[in-house]
Write a structure and sequence with these properties.
single chain, 385 residues, alpha/beta, six-stranded mixed beta sheet, five-stranded mixed beta sheet, 9 helices, elongated
């Protein structure tokens, strides 16, 4: 009996380790090698075939984990060009090697040189060029193709990116507003890898929303999830900051941060990582309004949330950003208890993205994103706060 129990539990242990290995992957290193050019034929002036290229093709249906699973060797080598012969004075070129990568991938070398990006389905990116076929200039000897390691760095592409400290209710909101099934619990850091949910509307409109691992103070310097989280914010169209009305405390040895302090610190972390992120359209959701004294706390800070510049003056310099987010909307909700609140957020996100799309279509117009989005939103109805 004891022997059978050992076998049973050993199987469970192996399954657990396998599960951990199959987690979210947003970086992958592979080796790419273009095919060698074929040799020429000096006697007849024959030219060898060009070596094949290695090409990455964008796809919506694969992840970097899929790329890893499909080729465990992590090596991609194109076919060599054919040699020139009596029958084929011009040697046929080698076959190029094409393989799928997820949309949103940036390809860099080990030395940090950027090769390019794949941002659309079907888009092709040349990773390694094949060698030149043998000809009079190279003594009729085919040359080797380009060969080096490259790194695929994935930055999620989503319409909306959820930003917030741990346990602010981002995963709860994502679950309520979309068909995603993120892990939800009463303790922080339940999200350890990005989740992407699709918000669906009755007219079949769809909006993608990314729930990303919670920030902590110092994330810009790669503390906590650090850059592993922040890099995914760069390719979202709209930032949705989610903040607990009761504030946040990472652990007893860290200071408790109020709701307003949390907003300022999130602003500062985004600025220190990449100040361009502050130019993105943004919306603020104050969550957990179902908790005790939540309405009084919100009433105390509501006006300050609309003007972070004035709000920051009462805090020490190390907490003050140099530049401030300008929210196109501030909403107080309970993502857990009130479905009407969730529906209001859902409709407001759609309206904001529609306004942004209209503004982007007018290339000749130089506009203030915050001002124009606010004006277009208020024209359609009252402010939701």
């Amino acid at each position: 009996m004891v022997f059978l129990s050992r076998i049973y539990f050993s199987k469970l242990k192996r399954a657990s380790r396998k599960y951990l290995k199959e987690g979210f992957r947003d970086s992958l290193k592979v080796f790419v090698s273009g095919g060698t050019g074929g040799n020429g034929l000096p006697k007849f002036g024959g030219v060898g075939g060009q070596g094949g290229d290695v090409i990455a093709v964008g796809s919506d249906n694969v992840s970097l984990q899929d790329v890893f699973k499909r080729n465990k060797t992590k090596s991609y080598t194109a076919k060599a060009g054919n040699h020139s012969s009596h029958n084929f004075i011009l040697g046929p070129p080698g076959e190029s090697l094409k393989f799928e990568v997820p949309v949103g991938v940036t390809v860099i070398t080990e030395l940090g040189k950027k090769i390019g990006e794949v941002n659309e389905k079907g888009e092709e990116l040349l990773l390694a060029k094949g060698g030149t076929g043998g000809n009079p200039k190279n003594g009729y000897l085919g040359t080797k193709g380009q060969a080096y390691p490259v790194i695929f760095d994935l930055k999620l592409i989503a319409d909306v990116g959820l930003v917030g400290f741990p346990n602010a209710g981002k995963s709860t909101l994502l679950k309520a507003i979309s068909h995603a099934k993120p892990k939800i619990a009463s303790y922080p850091f339940t999200t350890v890898r990005p989740n992407v949910g699709i918000i669906q509307y009755k007219d079949f409109r769809e909006i993608s929303m990314a729930d990303l691992p919670g920030l902590i103070e110092g994330a810009y310097a790669n503390k906590g999830m650090g850059h592993k989280f922040l890099k995914h914010v760069e390719r979202t169209k709209l930032l949705l900051l989610v903040v607990d009305i009761n504030g946040f405390q990472l652990s007893p040895q860290y200071p408790h941060r109020s709701c307003l302090e949390t907003v300022l610190l999130l602003n500062k972390e985004l600025e220190l990582y990449n100040k361009d992120l502050l130019e993105k359209p943004s919306m603020l959701v104050i969550n957990k309004m179902d908790t005790e004294n939540a309405h009084q706390k919100y009433s105390d800070v509501k006006d300050l949330l609309w003007n972070l510049t004035d709000a920051a003056r009462q805090y020490p310099e190390e907490m003050r950003p140099e530049n401030f987010l300008k929210f196109s909307e501030v909403m107080a909700i309970s993502a857990k208890e009130k479905s009407d609140d969730v529906e209001a957020v859902k409709q407001r996100l759609r309206r904001m993205l529609d306004v942004l799309a209209q503004l982007e279509q007018d290339d000749s117009k130089i506009y203030d994103v915050y001002k124009d989005v606010r004006n277009n939103l208020t024209e359609k109805g009252p402010r939701l706060v």
